[in-house]
Amino acid sequence: MSFxxxxxxxHAYGGRPILERVSxxxxxxxxxxxxxxxxxxxxTFLRLLLDQERPERGEIYVDGDPLQGEPSRSRGIVFxxxxxxxxxxxxxxxxxxxxxxxxxxxxFGNIRRAxxxxxxxxxxxxxxxxxxxxxxxxxxxxxxxxxxxxQALAGKPRILLLDEPFGALDPxxxxxxxxxxxxxxxxxxxxVFMVTHDLPEAFKLxxxxxVFDKVRWDPHDPAAYGATIxxxxxxxxxxxxxxxxxxxIHGLAES
Length: 255
Ligand SMILES: Nc1ncnc2c1ncn2[C@@H]1O[C@H](COP(=O)(O)OP(=O)(O)OP(=O)(O)O)[C@@H](O)[C@H]1O
Ligand SMILES: [Mg+2]
Known about the structure:
The protein is an alpha/beta fold. It is built from seven helices and eleven strands.
């Protein structure tokens, strides 16, 4: 069994199928980029992986264990919109994220001081040490998003879920964030699932690029069917679809 196993998921909202027959295996350390039309269920898929919602049918296994709707430090998420707390300083944003990832939820005394020291070390590492005492509104978009990623990392997750993390950033800042994410990944060996609308970004960062789309479509009732994974590209090999590779090998054998 792979590190992450998704088996035949089905999920609906208000009787409207959103995802159907979604299956996927990912190895530990793999970076899976997720693309697909707006509204096809990409964020929903991440919420199911996060275990924030239970699928109506199907099962997700992480490291051999089925997800059961319990919060866990093994998964961290950066949401589509900025997820930092505006009323907390940059340092306390990290401390709060760590506190939230603990069963008791609050930190006191020495434990809190130690958490602050850890937060400062984290901020130093991601180049935000000089703004630890400031509020997020004083930071640029790229800095805020770096802070959001640092928050997600506070619980030392084995799986990082990123929902269009760089969508609101200018191209230069985006490039910096790509380098930052690649370094983090090399350092931690994390497994990453990242939703993006930017195909070059999907192929640049991902080992794989999976596409969500509807295979069944009723023109009289567009909401009748959900989306599934229609392509699974190997991004490490020039983006050639797995299926095509197999066909090519077959073709070579025949000629
Ligand atoms: N909590 C919810 N209750 C009801 N419907 C929902 C809920 N969350 C999402 N939906 C619906 O499910 C569908 C999929 O939403 P989702 O946010 O997963 O799409 P997405 O692929 O992430 O889109 P985008 O690219 O625009 O972010 C949409 O039609 C959305 O309106
Ligand atoms: Mg979304």
